[in-house]
Design brief:
The protein is mainly α and 294 residues long. 79% of the residues lie in helices and 0% in strands. It has helices spanning 2-34, 39-47, 49-82, 88-95, 97-100, 103-114, 122-127, 136-162, 165-172, 177-205, 209-215, 225-234, 238-262, 267-278, 284-291. The radius of gyration is 24 Å and the shape is globular.
Length: 294
Amino acid sequence: MSDNRLVRYTLRSIVLVYLAMLIVWPVFLVAKNAFADGLGTFVDALTEPTTAYAFQLTLIVAAWAVVINTVFGVLISILLVRYTFPGRRLLSAFIDLPLSVSPVVVGLALLLAYGGNSGWFGPALEDAGLQVIYATPGIIMATAFVSLPLVIREVVPVLTEIGTEQEQAARSLGANAWQTFRRITLPAMRWALVYGVVLSLARSLGEFGAVKIVSGNVVGQTQTATLVVEEKYQNFEQTAAYASSFVLAAAAVLALVVVTLLRPGHTASSEAAAAQLATPLPTETDRAGERNPA
């Protein structure tokens, strides 16, 4: 028993030291340098006009990317789990493509597809008055692409685990597709969806490679917060670079902490939801009885 404890504590210590050196210590150094010159300098660096605009653009892009990934992530998850069709495995493999391909390659691919001069669709879109590359739509597309799998890979296992019995029972009792989704499917997968949305948000806030290619990095127009970090650091404005980096890191950590704190507290609500789901939907006979009580 003592040997097992020694091995267990040794492995724990190795893992903790590894995580501390790889994650905790570097993030601590960023925070330390961000406030090295005082809180006033930190605030001034973030409220500088170009930096403030970059964070505003980042929030807009991240919000749109999260909405797009949430809607299409849920639809694709239901399609993969609830339906059988030719090419389903191929579609599932393609979903993981953004995780395995360099974001720079993603940005270059979007440039070749939607570029205004030589892109396949770019000239036609610009003739119609819509500029994609070197504009906000291109940044949103790049950000949504790299963070798409995060919602899907959280929701798919939950949908697989809950099965289809409750959904089939709801349909047999007269529920339409929307009622079935709202009362059965969504409550069952809501925490996986929330976690996927948070991961997608954190990934969207920190995207750099693909955004740099499609945005053009124009100061005050298409420059996002991550691009501000690069520019400030290269121009030896290190306080501003560290301040922007700290805000991005803090936003991602805060989002994950909030979800972690909320998850243990949803047990009671999950039990109540399960009890509600176990209650059959009212039939036409039940509704008639309610309207005309004996």
